[in-house]
Amino acid sequence: CNITPASTGAAKAVGAVIPELQGKLTGMAFRVPTTDVSVVDLTVKLEKPATYDEIKQVIKAASEGDYAGIMGYTEDEVVSSDFLHCSLSSIFDANAGIALNDSFVKLISWYDNEWGYSNRVLDLMVYISKKL
């Protein structure tokens, strides 16, 4: 079993979906021998200072509000297999991230790429069927 550095188009895809982020993201992937689940390690330079606790509160509120059913939030001690067949697109791991200072943070989020993506495709199908 090996960990292999690899390229990813995820940063470009985010820029295509969220135009304000176009050209502001870059990334790489590490291929690891696990079943489907991946983790994102996002390093962020904030425009406005914020504590890590403030960031966690905003993400938790979003996961319970407008993004409920799409984004999750956990303070549990977790490992990749905890997210197998998770229908959420992303689960923020509040214990894994850190703030280097009030304007530079690392945010960690887990996802089951195949399962979460499939659920978003189903969401899209339901949305389209309601419009017909």
Write the layout of secondary structure elements.
Layout (H helix, E strand, L loop, with lengths): L3 E3 L3 H8 L11 E3 L5 E9 L6 H13 L6 E4 L15 E4 L4 E4 L2 E9 H19 L1
Parallel strand pairs: 4-5
Antiparallel strand pairs: 1-2, 3-7, 5-7, 6-7
Family: Belongs to the glyceraldehyde-3-phosphate dehydrogenase family.
Main location: cytoplasm
Protein name: glyceraldehyde-3-phosphate dehydrogenase (phosphorylating)
Any overview of this molecule?
The structure is a single chain. With 132 residues, this protein is an alpha+beta fold. It has two domains: 1-33, no CATH class; 34-131, 2-Layer Sandwich (Dihydrodipicolinate Reductase, domain 2), CATH 3.30.360.10. The protein has three helices and seven strands; from the N terminus they run E-H-E-E-H-E-E-E-E-H. The protein has helices at 10-17, 52-64, 113-131; strands at 4-6, 29-31, 37-45, 71-74, 90-93, 98-101, 104-112. The longest helix has 19 residues, at 113-131. The relative contact order is 0.18.
Helix content: 25-40%
Beta strands, count: 7
CATH class of the largest domain: Alpha Beta
Biggest sheet descriptor: 5 strands, mixed
CATH level-4 homologous superfamily of the largest domain: Dihydrodipicolinate Reductase, domain 2
Strand-residue fraction?
25-35%
SSE order, as H and E?
A: EHEEHEEEEH
Kindly report the average pLDDT value: 92
| Cα-based radius of gyration, to the nearest Å | 16 Å
Number of domains: 2
Low-confidence stretches: none
Give the overall shape. Answer: globular
- Number of contiguous helices: 3
Task: Indicate the CATH topology of the largest domain.
Answer: Dihydrodipicolinate Reductase, domain 2
Derived from helix and strand composition plus strand pairing, the structural class reads alpha+beta
- CATH A-level architecture of the largest domain: 2-Layer Sandwich
The end-to-end span amounts to 48 Å
